[in-house]
Design brief:
Length: 300
Amino acid sequence: MSTGSARAVALALIANGGIALSKFAVFVLTGSSSLLTEAIHSTADCANQVLLFIGMKQGARPASSRHPLGHGQAAFVASFLVALLLFTVGGLYSLVEGLHKIRHPEQPHHLGWAVGLLLIAIGLEAWSLRGALRAAEPERRGRSLLRYLRRSSSTELVVVLAEDIAALLGLVFALVAVLLTLLTGNPVWDGVGSVAIGLLLIAVAAFVGVEVTSLLMNEAPPLALRAALRAAVDEDPAVEQVLNLVAVIVGSERLMVALQVKFREQPSGMALVEAINALERRLHERFPQIQHLFVEPDDH
Protein backbone atom coordinates (compact mmCIF):
# COMPACT_ATOMS: atom_id res chain seq x y z
CA MET A 1 0.00 0.00 0.00
CA SER A 2 1.56 3.31 -1.11
CA THR A 3 2.07 5.78 1.75
CA GLY A 4 1.18 8.71 -0.52
CA SER A 5 -2.01 7.02 -1.71
CA ALA A 6 -3.06 6.08 1.83
CA ARG A 7 -2.45 9.65 3.03
CA ALA A 8 -4.48 11.10 0.14
CA VAL A 9 -7.40 8.75 0.88
CA ALA A 10 -7.23 9.59 4.60
CA LEU A 11 -7.26 13.34 3.89
CA ALA A 12 -10.28 12.92 1.61
CA LEU A 13 -12.10 10.85 4.25
CA ILE A 14 -11.47 13.43 6.99
CA ALA A 15 -12.53 16.33 4.77
CA ASN A 16 -15.65 14.63 3.42
CA GLY A 17 -16.73 13.35 6.84
CA GLY A 18 -16.68 16.82 8.37
CA ILE A 19 -18.29 18.39 5.32
CA ALA A 20 -21.11 15.80 5.18
CA LEU A 21 -22.09 16.37 8.82
CA SER A 22 -22.12 20.15 8.44
CA LYS A 23 -24.08 19.97 5.16
CA PHE A 24 -26.80 17.83 6.72
CA ALA A 25 -27.02 20.26 9.65
CA VAL A 26 -27.37 23.30 7.40
CA PHE A 27 -29.85 21.44 5.14
CA VAL A 28 -32.09 20.86 8.16
CA LEU A 29 -31.84 24.57 8.92
CA THR A 30 -32.35 25.89 5.37
CA GLY A 31 -34.26 23.18 3.46
CA SER A 32 -31.97 23.78 0.46
CA SER A 33 -32.11 21.05 -2.19
CA SER A 34 -28.56 21.84 -3.32
CA LEU A 35 -27.33 21.37 0.25
CA LEU A 36 -29.14 18.03 0.55
CA THR A 37 -27.65 16.68 -2.68
CA GLU A 38 -24.20 17.89 -1.64
CA ALA A 39 -24.64 16.20 1.76
CA ILE A 40 -25.58 12.92 0.05
CA HIS A 41 -22.59 13.38 -2.28
CA SER A 42 -20.18 13.85 0.64
CA THR A 43 -21.64 10.83 2.46
CA ALA A 44 -21.16 8.70 -0.67
CA ASP A 45 -17.59 9.99 -0.92
CA CYS A 46 -16.91 8.84 2.67
CA ALA A 47 -18.17 5.36 1.79
CA ASN A 48 -15.97 5.47 -1.30
CA GLN A 49 -12.85 6.25 0.71
CA VAL A 50 -13.59 3.34 3.07
CA LEU A 51 -13.95 1.07 0.02
CA LEU A 52 -10.61 2.32 -1.33
CA PHE A 53 -8.90 1.57 1.99
CA ILE A 54 -10.31 -1.98 1.93
CA GLY A 55 -9.21 -2.44 -1.70
CA MET A 56 -5.70 -1.12 -0.98
CA LYS A 57 -5.33 -3.41 2.03
CA GLN A 58 -6.52 -6.47 0.11
CA GLY A 59 -4.34 -5.55 -2.87
CA ALA A 60 -1.23 -5.57 -0.66
CA ARG A 61 -1.68 -9.25 0.25
CA PRO A 62 1.01 -11.56 -1.19
CA ALA A 63 0.43 -14.07 -3.97
CA SER A 64 -1.10 -17.43 -3.09
CA SER A 65 -1.77 -20.74 -4.81
CA ARG A 66 -5.28 -19.53 -5.62
CA HIS A 67 -4.11 -16.09 -6.76
CA PRO A 68 -0.62 -16.68 -8.20
CA LEU A 69 -0.34 -13.15 -9.59
CA GLY A 70 -1.28 -11.60 -6.26
CA HIS A 71 -4.29 -9.57 -5.19
CA GLY A 72 -3.33 -6.24 -6.79
CA GLN A 73 -6.55 -6.00 -8.79
CA ALA A 74 -8.58 -5.77 -5.56
CA ALA A 75 -7.90 -2.03 -5.69
CA PHE A 76 -9.38 -1.95 -9.21
CA VAL A 77 -12.53 -3.72 -8.02
CA ALA A 78 -12.90 -1.25 -5.14
CA SER A 79 -12.47 1.67 -7.56
CA PHE A 80 -15.14 0.22 -9.85
CA LEU A 81 -17.55 -0.03 -6.91
CA VAL A 82 -16.77 3.62 -6.14
CA ALA A 83 -17.78 4.55 -9.68
CA LEU A 84 -21.08 2.70 -9.20
CA LEU A 85 -21.74 4.54 -5.93
CA LEU A 86 -20.94 7.89 -7.52
CA PHE A 87 -23.35 7.14 -10.36
CA THR A 88 -26.25 5.81 -8.28
CA VAL A 89 -26.13 7.37 -4.81
CA GLY A 90 -24.52 10.61 -5.91
CA GLY A 91 -25.43 11.34 -9.51
CA LEU A 92 -28.86 9.81 -10.02
CA TYR A 93 -30.18 10.91 -6.62
CA SER A 94 -29.04 14.49 -7.19
CA LEU A 95 -30.60 14.52 -10.66
CA VAL A 96 -33.97 13.18 -9.45
CA GLU A 97 -34.03 15.51 -6.43
CA GLY A 98 -33.17 18.52 -8.59
CA LEU A 99 -35.87 17.77 -11.16
CA HIS A 100 -38.39 17.35 -8.36
CA LYS A 101 -37.46 20.74 -6.89
CA ILE A 102 -37.73 22.41 -10.30
CA ARG A 103 -41.22 21.00 -10.81
CA HIS A 104 -42.28 21.63 -7.20
CA PRO A 105 -40.09 24.48 -5.93
CA GLU A 106 -39.89 25.13 -2.17
CA GLN A 107 -38.46 28.33 -0.75
CA PRO A 108 -35.33 27.54 1.32
CA HIS A 109 -34.57 29.53 4.49
CA HIS A 110 -31.52 31.02 6.25
CA LEU A 111 -29.46 30.86 3.05
CA GLY A 112 -26.71 32.94 4.65
CA TRP A 113 -25.76 29.84 6.67
CA ALA A 114 -25.63 27.83 3.47
CA VAL A 115 -23.29 30.35 1.82
CA GLY A 116 -20.96 30.32 4.83
CA LEU A 117 -20.87 26.53 4.97
CA LEU A 118 -20.22 26.18 1.24
CA LEU A 119 -17.28 28.61 1.43
CA ILE A 120 -15.76 26.59 4.30
CA ALA A 121 -16.41 23.33 2.43
CA ILE A 122 -14.71 24.69 -0.69
CA GLY A 123 -11.63 25.43 1.43
CA LEU A 124 -11.62 21.90 2.90
CA GLU A 125 -12.06 20.25 -0.50
CA ALA A 126 -9.26 22.38 -1.93
CA TRP A 127 -7.06 21.17 0.96
CA SER A 128 -7.94 17.54 0.19
CA LEU A 129 -7.32 18.05 -3.56
CA ARG A 130 -3.95 19.66 -2.84
CA GLY A 131 -2.94 16.60 -0.79
CA ALA A 132 -3.99 14.22 -3.58
CA LEU A 133 -2.10 16.24 -6.20
CA ARG A 134 1.04 16.16 -4.06
CA ALA A 135 0.72 12.39 -3.62
CA ALA A 136 0.39 11.95 -7.40
CA GLU A 137 3.33 14.24 -8.25
CA PRO A 138 6.09 11.55 -8.27
CA GLU A 139 4.19 9.37 -10.73
CA ARG A 140 2.71 12.24 -12.72
CA ARG A 141 6.15 13.65 -13.65
CA GLY A 142 4.93 16.80 -15.38
CA ARG A 143 2.16 15.15 -17.40
CA SER A 144 -1.16 16.95 -17.74
CA LEU A 145 -3.72 16.02 -15.11
CA LEU A 146 -6.10 14.47 -17.67
CA ARG A 147 -3.31 12.36 -19.18
CA TYR A 148 -2.27 11.18 -15.73
CA LEU A 149 -5.85 10.24 -14.80
CA ARG A 150 -6.21 8.25 -18.01
CA ARG A 151 -2.88 6.40 -17.86
CA SER A 152 -2.18 5.83 -14.17
CA SER A 153 -2.67 2.38 -12.63
CA SER A 154 -2.81 3.92 -9.11
CA THR A 155 -6.59 3.78 -9.17
CA GLU A 156 -6.96 4.86 -5.54
CA LEU A 157 -5.24 8.17 -6.36
CA VAL A 158 -7.16 8.53 -9.62
CA VAL A 159 -10.47 8.04 -7.79
CA VAL A 160 -9.55 10.47 -4.99
CA LEU A 161 -8.47 13.11 -7.51
CA ALA A 162 -11.61 12.63 -9.61
CA GLU A 163 -13.83 12.76 -6.51
CA ASP A 164 -12.09 15.86 -5.14
CA ILE A 165 -12.37 17.68 -8.46
CA ALA A 166 -16.04 16.69 -8.75
CA ALA A 167 -16.68 17.72 -5.13
CA LEU A 168 -15.00 21.09 -5.61
CA LEU A 169 -16.96 21.82 -8.80
CA GLY A 170 -20.15 20.54 -7.14
CA LEU A 171 -19.66 22.94 -4.24
CA VAL A 172 -19.17 25.80 -6.68
CA PHE A 173 -22.40 24.79 -8.48
CA ALA A 174 -24.24 24.65 -5.15
CA LEU A 175 -22.86 28.04 -4.09
CA VAL A 176 -23.94 29.66 -7.37
CA ALA A 177 -27.40 28.07 -7.04
CA VAL A 178 -27.82 29.28 -3.44
CA LEU A 179 -26.60 32.80 -4.31
CA LEU A 180 -28.99 33.01 -7.29
CA THR A 181 -31.85 31.81 -5.07
CA LEU A 182 -30.88 34.38 -2.44
CA LEU A 183 -30.59 37.25 -4.95
CA THR A 184 -33.66 36.49 -7.08
CA GLY A 185 -35.93 34.89 -4.50
CA ASN A 186 -36.67 32.17 -7.09
CA PRO A 187 -36.29 28.67 -5.51
CA VAL A 188 -36.07 27.03 -8.95
CA TRP A 189 -32.36 27.91 -8.99
CA ASP A 190 -31.87 25.58 -6.03
CA GLY A 191 -33.23 22.67 -8.09
CA VAL A 192 -31.12 23.69 -11.09
CA GLY A 193 -28.04 23.48 -8.87
CA SER A 194 -28.95 19.92 -7.86
CA VAL A 195 -29.41 18.90 -11.50
CA ALA A 196 -26.00 20.37 -12.42
CA ILE A 197 -24.35 18.49 -9.53
CA GLY A 198 -26.06 15.25 -10.56
CA LEU A 199 -24.90 15.54 -14.19
CA LEU A 200 -21.37 16.31 -13.00
CA LEU A 201 -21.26 13.23 -10.75
CA ILE A 202 -22.63 10.96 -13.49
CA ALA A 203 -19.95 12.23 -15.90
CA VAL A 204 -17.16 11.64 -13.35
CA ALA A 205 -18.53 8.18 -12.49
CA ALA A 206 -18.61 7.25 -16.18
CA PHE A 207 -15.01 8.43 -16.62
CA VAL A 208 -13.75 6.47 -13.60
CA GLY A 209 -15.77 3.40 -14.60
CA VAL A 210 -14.36 3.32 -18.14
CA GLU A 211 -10.75 3.74 -16.98
CA VAL A 212 -11.01 1.10 -14.24
CA THR A 213 -12.82 -1.37 -16.52
CA SER A 214 -9.88 -1.19 -18.93
CA LEU A 215 -7.50 -2.09 -16.08
CA LEU A 216 -9.72 -5.00 -15.02
CA MET A 217 -9.53 -6.29 -18.59
CA ASN A 218 -5.72 -6.69 -18.40
CA GLU A 219 -4.66 -3.35 -19.82
CA ALA A 220 -1.08 -3.00 -21.04
CA PRO A 221 1.16 -0.29 -19.54
CA PRO A 222 1.85 2.88 -21.58
CA LEU A 223 3.64 2.45 -24.91
CA ALA A 224 6.67 4.41 -23.65
CA LEU A 225 7.16 1.95 -20.78
CA ARG A 226 6.81 -1.06 -23.08
CA ALA A 227 9.39 0.49 -25.42
CA ALA A 228 11.74 1.07 -22.48
CA LEU A 229 11.32 -2.57 -21.42
CA ARG A 230 12.12 -3.83 -24.90
CA ALA A 231 15.13 -1.51 -25.16
CA ALA A 232 16.45 -2.73 -21.81
CA VAL A 233 16.23 -6.36 -22.97
CA ASP A 234 17.87 -5.51 -26.30
CA GLU A 235 20.78 -3.89 -24.43
CA ASP A 236 21.58 -7.11 -22.58
CA PRO A 237 24.85 -8.54 -24.01
CA ALA A 238 23.49 -12.10 -23.99
CA VAL A 239 20.36 -11.23 -25.99
CA GLU A 240 20.34 -11.45 -29.76
CA GLN A 241 16.68 -10.55 -30.37
CA VAL A 242 13.42 -9.91 -28.51
CA LEU A 243 10.88 -12.13 -30.23
CA ASN A 244 7.87 -11.14 -28.15
CA LEU A 245 7.07 -9.00 -25.11
CA VAL A 246 3.78 -9.03 -23.20
CA ALA A 247 3.27 -6.64 -20.29
CA VAL A 248 0.06 -6.43 -18.25
CA ILE A 249 -0.93 -4.21 -15.32
CA VAL A 250 -1.83 -6.53 -12.41
CA GLY A 251 -2.18 -3.92 -9.67
CA SER A 252 -1.39 -0.38 -8.65
CA GLU A 253 2.12 0.17 -10.04
CA ARG A 254 2.53 -3.59 -10.54
CA LEU A 255 3.36 -5.35 -13.78
CA MET A 256 3.49 -8.89 -15.10
CA VAL A 257 5.99 -9.21 -17.95
CA ALA A 258 6.47 -12.25 -20.20
CA LEU A 259 9.38 -12.33 -22.66
CA GLN A 260 10.23 -14.59 -25.57
CA VAL A 261 13.92 -14.03 -26.23
CA LYS A 262 16.50 -15.37 -28.66
CA PHE A 263 19.80 -15.55 -26.80
CA ARG A 264 23.21 -15.57 -28.38
CA GLU A 265 24.70 -19.05 -28.65
CA GLN A 266 25.56 -20.34 -25.19
CA PRO A 267 28.28 -22.95 -24.54
CA SER A 268 26.10 -24.99 -22.14
CA GLY A 269 22.65 -25.20 -20.55
CA MET A 270 23.97 -23.75 -17.29
CA ALA A 271 25.32 -20.71 -19.14
CA LEU A 272 21.87 -20.10 -20.61
CA VAL A 273 20.30 -20.31 -17.14
CA GLU A 274 22.85 -17.80 -15.83
CA ALA A 275 22.13 -15.46 -18.77
CA ILE A 276 18.38 -15.60 -18.03
CA ASN A 277 18.97 -14.95 -14.32
CA ALA A 278 21.24 -12.00 -15.10
CA LEU A 279 18.62 -10.52 -17.46
CA GLU A 280 15.90 -10.89 -14.80
CA ARG A 281 18.07 -9.17 -12.17
CA ARG A 282 18.78 -6.21 -14.48
CA LEU A 283 15.11 -5.79 -15.37
CA HIS A 284 13.97 -5.97 -11.72
CA GLU A 285 16.59 -3.35 -10.75
CA ARG A 286 15.63 -1.01 -13.58
CA PHE A 287 11.87 -1.55 -13.35
CA PRO A 288 10.93 -2.18 -9.70
CA GLN A 289 7.21 -2.22 -10.63
CA ILE A 290 7.73 -5.65 -12.24
CA GLN A 291 6.18 -8.12 -9.79
CA HIS A 292 6.19 -11.19 -12.05
CA LEU A 293 8.73 -11.79 -14.80
CA PHE A 294 8.81 -14.80 -17.13
CA VAL A 295 11.59 -15.30 -19.69
CA GLU A 296 11.26 -17.98 -22.37
CA PRO A 297 14.38 -18.68 -24.46
CA ASP A 298 13.65 -19.43 -28.13
CA ASP A 299 15.70 -19.72 -31.30
CA HIS A 300 13.00 -18.86 -33.84
